[in-house]
Amino acid sequence: MENPFKQINQPMKEVPPELKAKVMHDIAMAKLLMELAELFSYNIGYIIDTVSRNREK
Questions:
Q1: pTM to 2 decimal places
Q2: Phi, psi of 18 (to 5 degrees)
Q3: HSE toward the beta carbon, residue 44, CA cutoff 13 A
Q4: How confident is the model at residue 42, as a pLDDT?
């Protein structure tokens, strides 16, 4: 078995364009899902807090 740490100092190899496009698409989808989750989770908490404060007045 070859030692993978010997490849650290070697120059990087070019990634095939199809693989690079797929990885970038997957990252974009993950980022979109994270932003949507953040949008709904944070804003709902803010709305609940605002409504509860207004009801106390």
A1: 0.54
A2: -65, -40
A3: 6
A4: 67
